[in-house]
Write a structure and sequence with these properties.
Order of helices and strands: HHH
Mean pLDDT: 90
Oligomer: single chain
InterPro entries: ATPase_P-typ_cation-transptr_C (IPR006068), ATPase_P-typ_TM_dom_sf (IPR023298)
Strand content: under 5%
Helix content: over 70%
Keywords: Membrane, Transmembrane, Transmembrane helix
Protein name: Cation-transporting P-type ATPase C-terminal domain-containing protein
Distance between the termini: 48 Å
Organism: Lentilactobacillus kisonensis F0435
Number of strands: 0
Length: about 50
């Protein structure tokens, strides 16, 4: 939700391209690591 009047209150501005790339690229490895952790936990629990 975009509220221009809040930019002055919180001293914020629009994101540039580098910030958008950062926001989209950082969650991908975190997601993959979490899925690998869950896979390993399932694999270990099946062996016990």
């Amino acid at each position: 939700m975009y509220q221009p009047f809040l930019q002055e209150i919180f001293n914020t501005g629009p994101l540039n391209v580098a910030e958008w790339v950062f926001l989209f690229c950082i969650p991908i490895p975190l997601f993959l690591l979490e899925e690998a952790r869950k896979w390993a936990a399932r694999k270990i629990s099946k062996n016990n």
